[in-house]
Amino acid sequence: MTANEALPLAVIASSLLPGLAIFALPERRVGLRTALNLFGAIAKLALVATLLAGVSAGEAYAFRYAVLPGIDLAFKADALALLFITLSAVLWLFTTLYAIGYLEKAPNRSRFFGFFSLCVTATMGIAMAGNLFTFFVFYELLTLATFPLVVHRGTTQAMRGGTIYLAYTLFGGTVLLTGIVWLFALIGHTEFTQGGVLSTRADLPPWKLQSIFLLMILGVGVKAALVPLHGWLPQAMVAPAPVSALLHAVAVVKAGAFGIVRIVYEVFGVEFAQLLNLLFPLALVAAFTIVWGSLRAAFQDDLKKRLAFSTVSQVSYIVLGVALFGPLGTIGGLVHLVHQGIMKITLFFCAGNYAETLGIHKVSELNGAGRRMPLTTLAFTVGALGMMGAPLTAGAVSKAWLMDGAAAAGMGWATGVLWLSSLLSAAYFLPILWRAWLLAPPKAWPTPRIAPHGWRETAWLLLLPPLFTAAATVAAAMLAELSFGTIPVTPLAWARLIAAREYGALNAP
Amino acid sequence: MVWLIALPLGWASLTVLLGPRRGAWTAISALTAQLWLAFELAQTVRATGTVRHAVGGWGAPLGIDLAVDGLSAAMLLLAQGVALPVAIYARAYFKVRSGHPGGVWFWPLLGFLIAGLNALFASADLFNLYVTLELVGLAAVALVAAGGGAPQVAAALRYLFATLLGSGAYLLGVALIYGVYGTVSTATLEPLLTVEAPRLAWIAGLLMLSGLMLKTALFPFHYWLPPAHGGAATPVSALLSALVVKASFYLILRLWIGPFAALVDRIAWLPAVLGATAVIWGSWHALRAVRLKALVAWSTVAQIGYLFLVFPLLGDDRIALHAGGMQMVSHAFAKAAMFTAAGVIVHTTGRDAVAEVAGVASRLPVTLFAFGLAGMTLMGLPPSGGFLAKWLLIEAALARGRWDMVVVVLAGGLLAAAYTFRVLRQAFLLPPSGERRRVERRPIAVLEWTAFVLAAASVAMGLRGMEIVQLLDAGT
Amino acid sequence: MTGGLLFALTGVALFASGVAGVVLIDNLLRRILAFNLMGSGAFLVLVGLAQRNEVADPVPQAMVLTGIVVAVAATALALAMTRKYHALTGRLELTGDDND
Question: Which B positions 182-201 lie with beta carbon below 8 A of chain C?
Answer without folding.
Answer: 184
